[in-house]
Here is the input.
Amino acid sequence: MARKAFIGWRIGDGRSIDIWREPWVPRVTDFLLRGERGKRPCWVSQFIWGGEWIREVVEDVLDEEDVSKVLVLPISCHGLSDKLI
Here is the structure.
């Protein structure tokens, strides 16, 4: 059986995606973020409120280049779980 290629994560509630360990941001080298790894938050869910990105939190944790890539990612408006696609 052929294996599907990894495309990325569909961001739902953000509870399954560790921002430092999971490859979740397309257009970033190897899909992993840079930035200060000791900083919080550690989960995508901590970047989201009401189905939208919390810009101030994203900007506080990530470097400028990664911020612009994260803020354009779609988030499920239905609060679904995250899913590898």
Remarks:
- The longest helix spans residues 55-61.
- Helices lie at 55-61, 64-70.
- Residues 9-84 form one domain.
